[in-house]
C-alpha cells in the first residue's frame, strides 16, 4: 500500500504491477479528483490481474457516474473486490460503464454463490414473469434480462476472483455459471411466450410444452464464463383439446426460435451467448423441435456413436421439467448401451483425432481446449471410460468430468494417481480458460501469445509468479494430460470390453458355467472357482479383477489352453498379493493384459516360470524389456552376484535364478513375436554361456588351491551350443579340457575331475534343467569325462574317427582359460579343416548318417514327424553342411564357422550350393528349429516329435503365427518343406 497523499511515485506503481506508469499515474490522479479521495485510499492494485486495465475501467465509470463507485471504494473489502473484478475483466468494466447502477452487486463481502433456484427467481423477476409469461415481450424485457444476467455473472466473478484458492472452486463456479445459463433460458422462454400472445391465444401458448435440454458443459454443470450453450428442444402438447400435437410442435418451434433470439440477437445490451441447437437429430438440417417419440425413433435408427456420447451430459435446463425428465429417462438406456455398437471405441478415438486435425496449425501450441494435452483430452478419456464400463456399472452414470473421475476411481477403472493428476490438471486448465474468457467476456480457448498477456494470466490465476512461469506450468500440464490420455484413451481393454457379447457381461452361475464350456473351457466348474477366488470381496484388488475378468476370460478362451491359463493367472495374482502395479498395469497398459493372457494360454513353460518369477509380468508394459540383455550385461550381473555372496552355494543359487529369469524373458519375447528364431538362439546361447562361466569361476575358487592355480581349465561348447543355435529345451553339448601347466599330472587329472563334478552339481536346476552333455568326447561314454590338452592331441591325431572330426566342426570355447581355449581351437582346426578328405572317410560319414536315421529314431515313431532325425529336418541340413565344411573349409575360409546357416551361406557364395537349394534347406532347418522350441514352450517338456493330436498341433501353429484351427495347414506345410529339403539333401549328400 502506498502512502496516503495526493501523489504516488512511478516506482511504487511499478511495484504494484502497473506497466504503463505515466498513463496510470495520470489516470489515478484524475480518478482521485473525480471521487475526491486520496490515491492511497483508492489503490488496491496489488490484487488486480491487470492494474492498468483496472484503473482505465474505473476512470471511465467515474467519469459517467462517480456516486456508485465512490461508495464502493470507501470500504476496504469492497474496494479489493472492485479492483479484482475491473483488473480481470474489461468486459465487466464495460458492463458497469453502461449500467453504473449495477455496481451495487459488488457491495459487501461475497462469501458464496447463489443457488440455482435463487438465480432463476432473480432472472424471472427481471422480466416480471408470472405463470410462465413475462410482463412484456418487447425489447425492454430482453434488455432487462441481459442486464440481470450480467449482474449475476459479476457476482460469480467477484466470488471467484477473491477466493484464496480459485482452482479448488472451479467446479462450484462452473456449476453456478450453468445454473445462470439455465435461468436465462427460463426467463427468455417467458418473454417468448408473451411475445407469441400477439398472434396466438394465451391458452394455446400455455398448453404447449417445451423442454430445453442442456447438452455439453451446460448439461454437465461445468460451463465457462463465455460459451455457446448447447441445447436440444423437446416439444409436445399439454392438452389435445386446447392445442393439437401438430400445432403444439409448430408453437414450440416458434418459442424455441424466440428464446434463442432473446439471448443472442442484436439489441442495445449486447448478446449473452449463442444458443446452439446443432446437436439435435440430423443437426442443423433437422427439425428444431421434436417430440420425445420422434427423438427416440431417430436414435433407434439413425444416430451415430458421437450423438450418444453427446447425450451423456444431457440434463433438463429450462422449460417443462416433467417433459425434460421424460426425455432423459427415455434416452438413458440408449446412452449406456451405445458402447456395444460395432467399432464404438474406434469411432470415438477417430473423432478425437479429427478434432485435432481441424485446429489451425498456428494455434496448436496455444489451444487450451482442443489441442493435445488440453481439456478435450481429459473429457474424451473420461467419457469413453464411462460409456464402455457403464454398460454394466450404473455408478458411472454421471455427467460432470470431476464427479465422473471420482466414480471411475471408486469403481477401480482408473488408478488413483492418474485420476488425481487428471483432476488437478483439469482444474488448472479450466481456471486458465475462465480467466482468459473473463478478460473481454469473449469466447476464447487460446493461451496468450505475448509476454504481457501471460503476465496478466499469471496474476489472474495465481498459478505462477510470472508470465514465463505460467507458460511453463501450461506446458507441464499438457505433457501430463497427454501422457495419461494416450495411455487410457487407447487402452486395448476398452475395445475388448465394448465388444463383449451382451450375454457375457452379466451371467448367473449356471449361465456362466454353460458359457465357459461353450467358449472352450474343458473344466468350467474349476474355471468358475478360480474366477470366484479372484473377484470375491470388497477390496480394490477384487473390484479391478471384476472389471478385468470378463474380457480376460474371453482372451484366455481364444488361446489353446484356457483352463491352465486361468489357473496360472490366479496363482500369479495370489503371488503378487496387493502389489499395486500389477492390476493397474493390466488395466491401463497398452496391451499388457492381452499379452499376459496370450502367454498363459499358449505356453506352460512360460506359465510355470511366471509363477516362480511373477514380478516379470511388469516386462509386458514395454516390448523393449522383452529383448535379450546381451552377453556382456549377463556376465556383468553374474560377476556382481558372486561378489555379493560368501558361499558358492548361495552364489550359484542366485546365478540359477538369473538363468531362469532370462530364459523367461526370452520365451516371452519369442511367443509375443518380439524376437526372431535367430535372436532366440543367440539369447539362449548367451544365457547358457553366462551360467557355465559363473559356475566355473565359483568352482575353480573352491576346488583349486593356491599352490595349483597354474592349472588351466576350459569348457568347449559342441553341437547346437557350439553353433550358438540353441532352442528351448536344448541340451548343452560340451567337452572338458585342462592343461596341467607344471602341476603334477595325476593331481591335475584329479582336480579337473573335481571341477567337472562341481560344475555338474552347481548348474543342476530341478525347476529348469540344464544338462551338460559330454557324450561327444573322445570314445564317447566309454572315455574319460575330462582330458588334458595333450591327451586330446594324441587321441585326435592317432585314433579319432570321421564322426569325431565332424563333431569338432561345432567346437567353440565358452568358459575358462582363454589361453587353453586357443590351444584347443588350434588343435581342432587341424582335425576339422583337413587339406583333403579321403573317399573312405566320406563313405564312412554317409554310412553313419544312414545308420543314425535307422537306429536312433524312437521305436514306433513316424520318421517323417521327427524334427531332428526325420527326412529333410535338422540332421539332414546339418550333416550336409558339415560334409561341405570337411571337404572345402581348408580352402574356403568362409566355411570355417560353427554356425550351420553361416556355413550354408558361405557354401552358396563359394558356388558349392545353389541359392534355390540353400533356401529350401534354410526353410526346413528354421521350421524344424521353431517347431522344437514351440513344443517345449507349449508343454513345458522337450520332444523331437511333431504331435499327432490336432489340439496340440493347433496350439503349436498359433505359437508359430498361424491362425486358429490351422493344425492341418501346419502339418502340410511341415511335410512339404521337409520333403523338398530331403530331395535337395539326397541330391547333394548322396549324389
Helix content: 55-70%
**For the terminal residues, how far apart are their CA atoms?**
107 Å
User: What does the main sheet amount to?
Assistant: 5 strands, mixed
Low-pLDDT ranges: 1-6
Going by helix content, strand content and strand pairing, the class is: mainly alpha
Say how many strands there are: 10
Q: What share of residues are in beta strands? A: under 5%
The pLDDT mean sits at 90
Over the alpha carbons, how many angstroms does the gyration radius reach? 41 Å
- Overall shape: it is elongated
Counted by DSSP, the helix tally is 45
Written description of the protein model:
This protein is mainly alpha-helical. Strands 1, 2, 3, 4 and 5 form a five-stranded mixed beta sheet that branches. Strand 7 (732-739), helix 36 (745-763) and strand 8 form a beta-alpha-beta unit.
List the helices and strands and how they pair.
Layout (H helix, E strand, L loop, with lengths): L9 H6 L5 H15 L3 H4 L8 H14 L1 H9 L1 H13 L1 H9 L17 H11 L12 H24 L7 H27 L5 H6 E7 L1 H4 L9 E9 L7 H20 L10 E2 L12 E2 L1 H10 L3 H7 L3 E5 L1 H17 L6 H14 L17 H15 L11 H10 L5 H25 L10 H11 L5 H23 L2 H7 L3 H4 L3 H10 L5 H12 L4 H19 L3 H15 L3 H9 L3 H11 L1 H9 L18 H14 L3 H24 L5 H27 L8 E6 L1 H4 L9 E8 L5 H19 L8 E2 L12 E3 H10 L3 H7 L3 E5 L1 H15 L6 H17 L18 H15 L11 H10 L5 H25 L10 H10 L7 H24 L1
Parallel strand pairs: 2-3, 2-4, 7-8, 7-9
Antiparallel strand pairs: 1-2, 1-5, 6-7, 6-10
Amino acid at each position: 500500500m502506498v502512502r496516503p497523499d495526493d501523489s504516488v511515485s512511478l516506482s511504487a506503481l511499478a511495484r504494484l504491477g502497473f506497466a504503463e506508469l505515466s498513463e496510470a499515474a495520470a489516470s489515478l490522479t484524475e480518478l482521485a479528483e473525480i471521487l475526491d479521495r486520496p490515491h492511497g485510499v483508492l489503490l488496491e492494485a496489488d490484487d488486480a490481474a491487470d492494474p492498468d486495465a483496472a484503473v482505465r475501467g474505473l476512470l471511465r465509470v467515474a467519469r459517467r457516474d462517480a456516486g456508485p463507485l465512490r461508495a464502493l471504494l470507501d470500504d476496504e473489502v469492497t474496494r479489493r473486490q472492485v479492483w479484482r473484478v475491473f483488473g480481470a475483466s474489461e468486459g465487466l468494466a464495460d458492463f458497469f460503464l453502461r449500467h453504473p447502477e449495477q455496481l451495487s452487486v459488488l457491495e459487501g463481502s461475497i462469501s458464496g454463490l447463489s443457488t440455482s433456484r435463487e438465480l432463476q427467481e432473480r432472472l424471472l423477476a427481471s422480466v416480471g414473469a408470472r405463470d410462465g409469461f413475462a410482463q412484456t415481450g418487447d425489447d425492454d424485457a430482453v434488455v432487462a434480462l441481459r442486464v440481470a444476467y450480467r449482474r449475476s455473472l459479476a457476482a460469480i466473478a467477484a466470488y471467484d476472483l477473491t477466493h484464496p484458492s480459485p482452482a479448488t472452486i472451479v467446479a462450484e463456479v462452473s456449476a453456478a455459471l450453468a445454473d445462470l445459463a439455465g435461468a436465462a433460458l427460463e426467463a427468455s422462454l417467458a418473454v417468448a411466450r408473451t411475445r407469441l400472445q400477439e398472434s396466438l391465444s394465451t391458452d394455446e401458448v400455455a398448453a404447449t410444452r417445451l423442454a430445453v435440454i442442456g447438452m455439453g458443459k451446460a448439461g454437465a454443470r461445468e460451463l465457462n464464463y463465455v460459451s455457446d450453450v448447447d441445447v436440444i428442444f423437446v416439444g409436445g402438447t399439454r392438452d389435445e383439446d386446447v392445442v393439437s400435437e401438430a400445432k403444439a410442435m409448430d408453437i414450440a418451434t416458434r418459442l424455441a426460435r424466440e428464446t434463442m433470439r432473446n439471448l443472442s440477437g442484436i439489441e442495445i445490451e449486447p448478446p449473452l451467448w449463442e444458443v446452439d441447437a446443432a446437436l439435435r437429430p440430423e443437426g442443423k438440417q433437422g427439425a428444431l423441435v421434436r417430440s420425445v417419440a420422434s427423438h427416440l425413433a431417430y436414435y433407434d435408427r439413425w444416430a451415430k456413436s458421437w450423438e450418444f456420447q453427446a447425450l451423456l451430459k444431457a440434463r433438463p435446463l429450462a422449460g417443462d421439467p416433467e417433459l425434460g425428465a421424460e426425455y432423459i429417462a427415455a434416452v438413458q438406456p440408449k446412452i449406456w448401451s451405445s458402447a456395444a455398437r460395432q467399432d464404438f471405441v474406434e469411432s470415438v478415438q477417430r473423432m478425437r483425432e479429427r478434432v485435432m486435425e481441424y485446429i489451425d496449425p498456428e494455434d496448436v501450441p496455444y489451444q487450451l481446449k482442443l489441442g493435445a494435452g488440453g481439456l478435450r483430452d481429459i473429457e474424451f478419456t473420461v467419457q469413453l471410460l464411462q460409456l464402455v464400463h457403464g454398460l454394466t456399472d450404473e455408478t458411472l452414470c454421471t455427467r460432470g468430468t470431476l464427479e465422473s473421475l471420482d466414480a471411475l476411481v471408486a469403481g477401480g477403472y482408473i488408478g488413483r494417481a492418474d485420476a488425481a493428476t487428471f483432476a488437478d490438471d483439469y482444474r488448472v486448465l479450466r481456471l486458465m480458460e475462465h480467466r482468459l474468457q473473463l478478460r473481454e467476456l469473449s469466447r476464447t480457448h487460446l493461451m496468450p501469445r505475448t509476454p504481457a498477456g501471460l503476465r496478466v494470466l499469471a496474476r489472474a490465476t495465481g498459478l505462477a509468479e510470472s508470465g514465463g512461469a505460467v507458460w511453463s506450468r501450461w506446458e507441464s500440464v499438457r505433457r501430463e494430460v497427454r501422457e495419461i490420455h494416450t495411455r487410457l484413451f487407447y487402452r486395448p481393454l476398452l475395445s475388448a470390453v465394448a465388444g463383449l457379447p451382451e450375454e457375457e457381461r452379466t451371467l448367473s452361475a449356471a449361465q456362466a458355467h454353460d458359457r465357459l464350456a461353450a467358449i472352450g473351457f474343458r473344466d468350467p466348474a474349476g474355471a468358475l472357482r478360480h474366477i470366484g477366488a479372484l473377484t470375491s470381496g470388497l477390496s480394490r484388488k477384487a473390484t479391478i479383477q471384476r472389471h478385468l475378468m470378463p474380457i480376460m476370460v474371453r482372451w484366455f478362451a481364444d488361446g489353446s489352453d484356457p483352463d491352465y491359463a486361468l489357473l496360472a493367472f490366479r496363482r500369479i495374482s495370489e503371488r503378487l498379493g496387493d502389489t499395486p502395479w500389477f492390476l493397474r498395469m493390466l488395466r491401463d497398459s497398452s496391451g499388457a493384459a492381452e499379452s499376459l493372457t496370450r502367454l498363459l494360454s499358449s505356453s506352460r513353460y512360460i506359465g510355470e516360470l511366471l509363477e516362480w518369477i511373477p514380478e516379470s509380468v511388469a516386462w509386458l508394459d514395454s516390448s523393449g524389456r522383452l529383448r535379450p540383455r546381451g552377453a556382456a550385461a549377463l556376465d556383468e550381473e553374474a560377476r556382481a552376484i558372486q561378489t555379493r555372496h560368501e558361499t558358492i552355494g548361495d552364489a550359484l543359487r542366485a546365478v540359477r535364478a538369473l538363468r531362469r529369469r532370462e530364459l523367461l524373458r526370452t520365451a516371452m519375447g519369442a511367443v509375443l513375436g518380439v524376437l526372431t528364431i535367430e535372436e532366440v538362439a543367440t539369447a539362449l546361447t548367451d544365457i547358457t554361456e553366462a551360467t557355465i562361466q559363473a559356475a566355473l569361476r565359483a568352482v575353480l575358487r573352491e576346488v583349486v588351491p593356491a599352490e595349483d592355480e597354474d592349472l588351466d581349465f576350459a569348457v568347449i561348447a559342441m553341437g547346437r551350443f557350439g553353433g550358438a543355435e540353441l532352442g528351448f529345451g536344448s541340451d548343452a553339448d560340451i567337452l572338458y579340457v585342462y592343461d596341467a601347466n607344471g602341476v603334477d599330472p595325476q593331481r591335475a587329472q584329479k582336480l579337473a575331475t573335481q571341477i567337472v563334478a562341481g560344475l555338474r552339481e552347481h548348474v543342476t536346476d530341478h525347476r529348469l534343467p540344464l544338462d551338460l552333455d559330454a557324450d561327444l568326447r573322445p570314445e564317447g561314454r566309454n572315455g574319460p569325462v575330462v582330458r588334458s590338452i595333450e591327451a586330446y592331441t594324441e587321441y585326435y591325431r592317432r585314433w579319432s574317427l570321421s564322426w569325431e572330426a565332424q563333431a569338432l566342426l561345432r567346437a567353440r570355447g565358452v568358459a575358462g582359460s582363454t589361453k587353453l581355449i586357443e590351444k584347443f581351437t588350434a588343435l581342432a582346426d587341424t582335425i576339422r579343416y583337413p587339406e583333403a578328405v579321403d573317399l573312405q572317410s566320406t563313405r564312412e560319414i554317409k554310412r553313419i548318417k544312414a545308420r543314425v536315421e535307422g537306429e536312433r529314431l524312437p521305436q514306433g515313431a513316424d520318421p517323417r514327424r521327427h524334427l531332428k532325425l526325420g527326412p529333410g529336418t535338422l540332421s539332414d541340413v546339418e550333416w550336409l553342411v558339415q560334409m561341405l565344411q570337411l571337404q572345402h573349409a581348408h580352402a574356403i575360409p568362409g566355411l570355417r564357422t560353427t554356425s550351420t546357416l553361416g556355413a550354408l551361406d558361405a557354401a552358396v557364395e563359394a558356388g558349392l550350393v545353389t541359392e534355390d537349394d540353400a533356401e529350401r534347406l534354410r526353410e526346413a532347418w528354421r521350421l524344424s528349429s521353431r517347431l522344437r522350441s514351440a513344443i517345449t514352450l507349449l508343454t513345458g517338456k522337450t520332444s523331437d516329435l511333431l504331435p499327432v493330436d490336432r489340439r496340440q498341433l493347433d496350439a503349436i501353429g498359433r505359437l508359430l503365427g498361424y491362425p486358429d484351427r490351422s493344425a492341418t495347414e501346419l502339418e502340410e506345410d511341415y511335410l512339404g518343406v521337409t520333403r523338398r529339403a530331403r530331395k535337395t539333401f539326397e541330391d547333394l549328400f548322396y549324389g
